[in-house]
Amino acid sequence: MKPQMTETEPASHRPARPQPEGRHASHHHRQFEVMGAHPAERGTWFTVWAPNARAVGVIGSFNDWSSEALHRLDDGSGRWSGFIEGARAGQCYKFRIHNVHGQWTDKADPYAFRMEHPPGTASQIWNPQHAWSDQEWMGSRGQRQAHDQPMSVYEVHLGSWQREKDGGFLNYRDIAQRLATHCDNLGFTHVELMPVAEHPFYGSWGYQITGYFAPTARYGTPEDLMAFVDTLHQRGIGVLLDWVPSHFPADAHALARFDGTALYEHDDPRLGFHPQWNSLIFNYGRYEVRDFLIGNALYWLEKYHFDGLRVDAVASMLYLDFAREPGEWIPNKHGGNQNHDAVRFLQDLNTAVYARFPDVHVIAEESTAWPAVTRPVHDGGLGFGMKWNMGWMNDTLRYAGRPHFYRHWHGDDIRFSAVYAFHENFVLPLSHDEVVYGKGSLLGRQPGDEWQKFAGVRSLFGYMWTHPGKKLLFMGGEFGQLAEWSHEGVLDWELWARPLNAGLARWLSDLNALYRRLSSLHATDFDARGFSWLPNERHESTIVCFLRRAEGQAPVAVVCNMTPEPRFGLRIGLPAKGPWQEVLNSDASIYGGSGVGNLGQVEATDHPLGGWPASALLTVPPLGVVILSLPTTPTTASLHGEPHARQ
């Protein structure tokens, strides 16, 4: 073992130890500026948190994997630190820890900025650097990502989106060029990456993380990921990151029992073990753990220019009895199942992120009715900017999977979301979770023959893109992937040669274009005044009619037929008379439809219906969605208020 550099040596022999700058966030949220490995001119500073260790050293390729001792800092922090000469960027290392039980264990650095390509588990000394060229995007991001702007997200798993011809993974840079073109052609405003932090098991899809600060080496270097984000920004596309603070794997080289004790997790498995995912749960009651996670969130947003975080499995954090049977969990001090430490952590997280980056989004994947998820912390909320609408997703997909004949009795499935659509700031997700584990693809779960299946998906997208809420679609859905998703394969891109698949992609492209162009379809996604049901004269439960509107903008009427039988001469109530243009029709022949429609326009007269001052007769195609808009903004009182009293 080489001798450790001591404080008695001349200061000129070693560079100053790194210190948090504290410019943009509280000092303790920027521990990534101190912790881990920080290369200097003649070597590298190493710092690690291991308060219960008897001794800590560093092993690596720079010392033939023989330990060089670190010294315990005398500030009571439980950190060990030291400078090792000759340790250079790119070299691998681990911390060798003599734990409280007298055992020696080798651990990867929790703060490593890069790690070995799996199955290797060592950390690498790295100082990520990139010359950014996304100043235009970053300068306008606040306006682009405002709640009254369109947001249409394409969710991607990088390893199975596309690959090299030989089956190898593409580099981040290569994926960026292809992905930017694809999203630009289809009109998506954002890409959301499934987790890219380093994970040893590829089959976890990135949700079992061992390197929280290190992009997975499967697709390249940290600089390659920075270039990925930069490329999409230069093409006007935002990038969101799926982030996992809810649990972590028990791999021996990573966070679990880091210094021989439950450091990042709880010691009691009723609090610290997640039975559903066979993983460990962070101890949100420890300020060091909260600082580690909040600092990690800030790191990705600051160093990689991500435009937001989708926080995974928030429900599993909020509830102490999540996925547990009686006797497998410990109630809180009030006897309830709420995890108060997790609530405080999430509030601290959102407060810190939005203080530093007011122009990003923090989005909760929260599957319960926990109140005020997207309300400010100072009002008692959790402070998220948006939340996935899992209720809408479950109800809508259940309805979409029913045989057409039975839909008449299940109209509540397709309408119930309007009851709570504005309780939170919702994203409508059709994510990866809906096309795995035997659920089939979006296309495969539709009833009927092939034509009806494609028409059903077109109507699903038409309903979704006009329903209040931002949009998220998992890759493959845009062109009608036939098989359910498999992380080991790639999407069936050859399907684009088939007319029905290509027609579906064109429909989605036109939907995105309309969604972005008409403010009434996006400016009031979180405002109940922007949505109203419209009546139809026959009161058919399988005909869904509603109005979208925004202040000073022309209203948009949407009529959805959820059965394969066309409806002719259907009268619907409208807020104003005049010519309503048929701006989109999912049954148009260019999309693979049968061509049933209204020849581009319907005429609304002052014939009142269901309390609305005007109405129109129109044709609704089979399994079709018709979107109508006035060419000008009417001035009727009913546009921005409630409809007139029923006649």
Written account of the structure:
By secondary structure, this protein is an alpha/beta fold. The chain has three domains: 24-124, Immunoglobulin-like; 153-245 and 285-521, TIM Barrel (Alpha-Beta Barrel), CATH 3.20.20; 528-629, Immunoglobulin-like, CATH 2.60.40.1180. 22% of the residues lie in helices and 21% in strands. It contains 13 helices and 30 strands. The strands form seven sheets. Strands 11-12-15-18-19-20-21-22 form an eight-stranded parallel beta barrel, surrounded by four helices. Strands 3, 4, 7, 8, 9 and 10 form a six-stranded antiparallel beta sheet that branches. Strands 23-24-25-30-27-28 form a six-stranded antiparallel beta sheet. Helix 12 runs parallel beside helix 13 (499-517). The longest helix is centred in the C-terminal third of the chain and has 19 residues, at 499-517. The model is unreliable at 1-12 and 636-641 (pLDDT under 50).
Top keywords for this entry?
647 residues, alpha/beta, Immunoglobulin-like, TIM Barrel, 3 domains, six-stranded antiparallel beta sheet, 30 strands, disordered N terminus
Mean pLDDT: 94
Radius of gyration: 27 Å
Q: Any idea how many domains?
A: 3
CATH C-level class of the largest domain: Alpha Beta
Strand order of the largest sheet: 11-12-15-18-19-20-21-22
**What structural category do the secondary elements indicate?**
alpha/beta
Give the termini separation.
Answer: 91 Å
Count of distinct strands: 30
Global geometry: elongated
